[in-house]
Structure formats: structure tokens, C-alpha cells
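This section describes the prediction task in plain terms. A model, or a person checking by hand, is given the sequence of a single protein chain and must write out its three-dimensional structure as a string of C-alpha cells. No templates, partner chains or ligands are provided. The sample shown here is typical of the held-out split.
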Amino acid sequence: MVIYGDGNKVIGNVLDKTPIIVRNGNTTQDKATKKLSSGKYGHPAAHNTLVAANQVVDSYIGVGVRVPGGGNYSGFPAEDTELEGNLPQGIQDRIKEGEEKDTVKKGRYNGEVSPTVELTPADVGPKAPESASLTE
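The expected answer:
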């Protein structure tokens, strides 16, 4: 699960093979609909993101990892990410220095969590993979 842009709440997900990636980017949300000098649209860095009560294998904050078929973006850090009560407690939060700013970790999430709903590939798109892997 890759998070870009402003004001996202990533709460209560169960991801057994996929990490949560709160991305750095090559533009900001207010400029995301404007083409870059390359002629392509940018990927806005995540800003003001809550990542809470998730069960995941890993989380990456501000990491410019390459996703299959994707690019390696940098220039704007992931800012103001809150990590609250994610499981397991030994989760590997990979926070890349210089590509994130003001990440806060809290041990507990006291908010509401909706019931988990399992999604199938048909729920997210006909070409959705069963799983995805990352390469750096």
C-alpha cells in the first residue's frame, strides 16, 4: 500500500504480504496536477498521514523505493507521519533520514477501527496482482 498526498488516514488494515509505504515525492499536493519539467505529472510527498492499528510486515516512511514499474522519487520529504499502535510490536519501521520530517511513533491508538473487509483483485481492479514485491 503506497501513500501519497495530504491528510491520509491508514487505519486498521491487515496486509500479510504488502508493506505500508508513506512516500517522499517529487512534488507537493498543491502542484500534483501540474506537469513537471519532464512533461510528466509528479508524485506528491505524503503529508499529515496517520498510520494506526494496522497489521503489516513492514512500514516504510519517506523511502524512495522502486515499486515494480515505478520510479524513484525524491525532493520532498514525507512530513508529519504519525505511527500509532501498529502490529506486530516488532514491526520494522524503516524511516529514511532526509526523506522524512517530523515522524512521531506512539505505542497505542485510541481511535475507532472499522471492521476488516477482505478485498479481492476484482475489488481493486482487473489487473491487480495477488501480491507485490519491492526492489530498492
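For orientation: The mean pLDDT is 79.
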